Each structure stands twice: as structure tokens, then as C-alpha cells.
Amino acid sequence: MCSFDKIKDGLIECRAKNRLPENSKTVIVACFPYLLDESVYENGNVSKYAVVTDYHAVALARLKTAVEELEGLYPNEKFAFFADNSPIPEVSAACYAGLGVRGENTLLITEKYGSYVFIGEIVTTAELEFSESEIKSCIKCGKCREFCPSGAISETGFERKLCLSEITQKKGALTPEEERLMKECGCVWGCDICQDVCPLNKNAAATQIEDFLSSPEATVSQGCELEGRAYEWRGRKVIERNISIVKGETI
Ligand code: SF4
Ligand code: SF4
């Protein structure tokens, strides 16, 4: 948990911001690990987070159950919950809550599951008791910077528009350089390089979340089913364009 005051100046402008309860006091932060057995990823072509079923529904269902319990315990308080589409600066909130450290690649790195976690939050007007941490940085070994193929991570910070996670989501035509990077990486959705080289991820534990274990899909191909996958929201055109690029059909 962390106090709402700690993150309120960094709230993200988005529609979901309207759902924050007035006079919020506490943010309860939850991590949902998604790493599967290494063998699942062999010959895959999407980022590890996209191999599991779309996490939004999985996380939101669990957060909703937790909120229902909390509403019973604190009937006079207000609650709202978020996953991804969130006004909360999630990595900062998770660090303040003591769930991990902030990597140079801007991701939360937890002790047990490394950075292979989704983050969700419950924001409440209840003043709950907890011990708060400060934001700590990773060991700054520089490996993510060294291996990032696009130069998105530098000494001066992180440039989102250069990151392949962003590039693979872009609509329309990509630049020749963006196409080259995607083809070289071989991933048609996202990129795992900075996570895979991070020493703090070396012994990351696998998930035990049944929904994630039950339907992994490491490879996408032209015409494949998109429903329930992390890339569904972007539409077929984008993912199929990326497949063509990686296959070398448009470069
Ligand atoms: S996800 Fe890939 S492109 Fe983005 S910062 Fe990490 S290594 Fe670089
Ligand atoms: S690779 Fe090194 S610098 Fe990058 S996030 Fe991991 S520990 Fe930090």
C-alpha cells in the first residue's frame, strides 16, 4: 500500500481519472506475475506478456473480488480499481508500496517475479495502516541500455517513442528504421530484450495464476484468432502488418 498523497502530483491525465474517489487516502497495489515455463516461448513471436490471455480481465476480476470484500469491511468508504487504464503512476505506487525497485528500463522489478508482472490498483478513501517505502532504483548495471536495439534507454532516461513496445503498436506505415528494428528483434508485438538481459530477472519465478497457465499462445500468424489476447485492442491490421514485416515481406 502507499498513501494517495505520495502519488497525487503524478496522476496521469486520462478518462479513468474521473473514477478516483474524492478524498482518496490509500492506494493498494497488486502485482500479477505472468512468466511461464521457458519452453513455452520457444519459436514464439510475441512479447512474454502477450503470450498469456489478456490480463485486463484477469486482473480486474481479482481486484473486483477484493473490493467487494473491502466494501464489507469498510461500508462507509469508497473504492475504485484499475488495471493498465489507470490514472495512478503504477511503477511509482508499487515502489512506494515496497513491491520492488524501478529499473532503468522504467519497469517495476519485484524480488520474486522480476519485472514479469502486471500491476493493478485499488484506490480508497479508507485510511489503512501500512509501512511505506521510498522509491529505490535497480542496481544500474546498464545491461538493458547496452542490449536495447533501438537506443530507447539512455543515461538521460527512457524515450518511449523509440521503444519497440510502442513501435509495434503504431498504426499506419512505419519508417524503414522502425521496420528494420522490428525485423531484427523478431517480435511482432512488444519486445522483451531489456527484461531478458536484466540480472534481477535471472531467477524470476513462474506464475501460478491459473488463467495465465491455461491458454498460452506464443506465436501469432496471419488470420489467427485475436480475441482475448493483449494485441486484440489494436486491431488485425497492425498485428498483421507486423507479421509481414518480421517475415520480410514489406522491407
Ligand atoms: S522493450 Fe526493447 S526496445 Fe523497448 S526499451 Fe526494452 S529493449 Fe529497448
Ligand atoms: S538490466 Fe541492469 S540497469 Fe537495466 S533494469 Fe536491470 S538491473 Fe537495472
Description:
By secondary structure, the chain is of the alpha+beta class. The protein folds into two domains: 106 residues, no CATH class; 83 residues, no CATH class. It has ten helices and eight strands. A four-stranded antiparallel β-sheet has the order 1-2-6-3, with helices on both faces. A hairpin with a 5-residue loop joins strand 4 and strand 5. Helix 7 crosses helix 10. The longest helix has 19 residues. It is globular, with a radius of gyration of 19 Å. The termini are far apart. The mean pLDDT is 95. The structure holds iron/sulfur cluster (SF4) (2 copies).
Spell out the blueprint of helices and strands.
Layout: E1 2-3, H1 4-7, E2 26-33, H2 48-51, H3 55-73, E3 79-83, H4 90-96, E4 101-102, E5 108-109, E6 117-124, H5 143-147, E7 153-154, E8 157-158, H6 164-167, H7 176-185, H8 193-196, H9 210-214, H10 236-247
Antiparallel strand pairs: 1-2, 2-6, 3-6, 4-5, 7-8
Bound molecules: iron/sulfur cluster (SF4) (2 copies).
One iron/sulfur cluster (SF4) binds next to helix 6 and helix 8.
Average of pLDDT: 95
- What fraction of the residues are assigned to beta strands by DSSP? 5-15%
Q: Roughly how many Å is the radius of gyration?
A: 19 Å
**Between the first and last Cα atoms, what is the distance in angstroms?**
48 Å
Helix content: 25-40%
Q: What molecules are bound to this protein?
A: iron/sulfur cluster
- Runs in which pLDDT lies below 50 for 5 or more consecutive residues are none
Overall structural class, as computed from helix and strand content, comes to alpha+beta
